[in-house]
Amino acid sequence: MRLEGLVTGANIEVSASTRDDAGNDWRSVATIRAGTDGAVDLARDRPLRGSYAEVSAMGLFWSMAVAAEPFDGRTVFAKDSTAPSIVQLEAHTGGRLIASTTVVRKFCADGTMARDLSVPNPSDADPGAQTTVGRLFIPAGAGPHPVVMVLSGSGGGFDIDKAAVLSRHGFATFALSYFGVPPLPSWLHRVPLEYFESALAWLRAQPEVDASRVGIFAISRGSEAALLLASRFDFIRSVVAWAPSSTAWAAGGEDKETRETIPCWTWRGEALPFAPLPLKRFMWTSAFPVAALKRPVMFVSLFRAALKNRSAVERAAIPIEKVSGPVLLVSGGDDHLWPATEMAEALVARAKRGGSAHFVEHLNFPRAGHMLRYPWLPTTSRFSRNKHLRGARFSFGGEASADAEAQSAAWRRSIEFLRESLGLTR
Q1: Where are any strands of DSSP class E within 236-392?
Q2: Which end of the chain is more exposed for a tag (fewer CB within 10 A), N or C?
Q3: For residue range 228-248, what is the model confidence (pLDDT) as tens digits?
Q4: Taking the chain, what is the end-to-end CA distance rounded to the nearest angstrom?
Q5: Spatial separation of the C-alpha atoms in residues 237 and 233, rounded to whole Å
Q6: pLDDT in the model for residue 156
Q7: What band does 313 get if pLDDT is binned at 50, 70 and 90?
Q8: Cβ atoms within 10 A of the Cβ of 268, count?
């Protein structure tokens, strides 16, 4: 963003505003002094004050916060559709509007087709009802196209918006839900890998898809599924895992009837080996800072404690050496959800020990947290609540500016990596 024809030394207030899919209004503002060339250039000039402090060409975008006062960092920018986002940009000086424009962010490229995967979800009122559990985006142009399956994390549902943005780069993309959408499991309890197997079979049968060039882009808990699938099915050519896990974890909690720890994943009707989570001790040690000091939960300490159970962790280790293609891992060094950096390093080390024939790359961003999405969504959310975690307020970690930088760099490398590994040349 650049404004010209200004008075040298004048203070110019620039602002951005938009509305998310939940109806929340977001806004950012920065006051910048016009240079000797009579211009304000966000890629060059540091704000005097405002929503962000450093030189950042896209600072007005990533520093937006909920406009309702006071913003306490708890609201995540909601984007769960492919509807364009409208951003209003304005510039004022001395209380007078001197420039304005509207930016329309289109999540799907022109000519993109969408096709849904639905499963039966009968009810007494509608025995033939079906529910959409996946959406395939097919880019314009001659196919068949390499395809990337996109898996969300512990929030459930599916990342339709991320899959749509990814499809702009020439891939067919497939956003798949694996829990949190009826009739799928309501939480990460006993999710059968056969479900993914069936979805992948449907995906590979689509005429616009090249069944020999399949990749997965996953985040957080979805990375467990992605790496477990890639270690079993050799047609999966590459995996991009943000905030990854090196271990298959327990779901958390016990079966009310058997009192057994509930697994996240099953295969052929049996629980996959998993590492248990020391929830009782964690809840006890977290009680005071959460209840008395009103601090958000930092689940990273729970998983760090669980990693000390070395025998269980080794039994539940994800066999990355069996993946039939390269893997890109992305982690934030200040992740408060789980120790993604340590687990990414463990995956790299295991691949080397196991003699993996494929490259495993780890991109680490020391000041970034867990909540990384894609450029240039607002990164000002510091914590949130999860309906699957009894409404607990939990911390993402990281800093807004560091998360914005990580999102941008990791996204660029992920696109490049998928192009290389899936043979997309255009």
Answers
A1: 236-242, 250-254, 261-263, 265-267, 270-271, 327-332, 360-365, 383-385
A2: C
A3: 999 999 999 999 999 999 999
A4: 29
A5: 9
A6: 85
A7: very high
A8: 8
Classify the C-alpha dihedral 289-290-291-295 as positive or negative: positive
CA atoms of 227 and 222, how far apart (whole Å): 9
Q: Is the pLDDT of residue 357 over 70?
A: yes
Whether the CB-CB separation of 57 and 30 falls below 8 Å is answered with no
Residues 6+ apart with CB under 8 A from 85: 18, 20, 79, 104, 105, 107
For residue 153, give the DSSP letter.
-
Q: Is 150 helix (H, G, I), strand (E, B) or coil?
A: strand
pTM over 0.70: yes
For 41, 134, 206, 336, 388, the CA distances from 200, given in Å and listed in that order, are 47, 11, 10, 32, 26
pLDDT at 142: 87
- Quote the Cα angle for 155-241-193, to 5°: 65
**By 3-state DSSP, what share of the chain in percent is helix, strand and coil, each rounded to 5?**
25, 30, 45
Place of tokens 């402090």: 53
Taking alpha carbons only, the member of 166, 267, 155 closest to residue 216 is 166
* Rounded Cα distance, 134 and 199, in Å: 8
Report the 10 Å Cβ neighbour count for 37: 11
Q: According to the model, what pLDDT value does residue 208 have?
A: 96
CB atoms closer than 10 angstroms to residue 235: 13
Cα gap 44→27, rounded to integer Å: 22
Tell me: the pLDDT tens digits for 366-389?
A: 999 999 999 999 999 988 765 555
Cα–Cα–Cα angle for 384, 73, 12, rounded to 5 degrees: 150
Residue 339 and residue 184: Cα distance in Å, rounded? 28
Structure tokens at 14: 């620039």
Selection from 254, 246, 228 nearest residue 303 by Cα: 246
* Least confident range of 108-112, 234-238, 249-253, 284-288: 284-288
Are 246 and 339 in contact by the 8 Å Cβ rule? The answer is no
Environment class of residue 63 by beta-carbon count within 10 Å: exposed (0-12), middle (13-18) or buried (19+)?
A: buried
Least trusted range by pLDDT, from 80-94, 186-200, 271-285: 271-285
Other C-beta atoms lying within 10 Å of the C-beta of residue 116: 11
Distance, in Å, from the CA atom of 150 to the CA atom of 167, rounded to the nearest integer, reads: 11
Tens of pLDDT, residues 139-164: 998 889 999 999 999 888 889 999 99
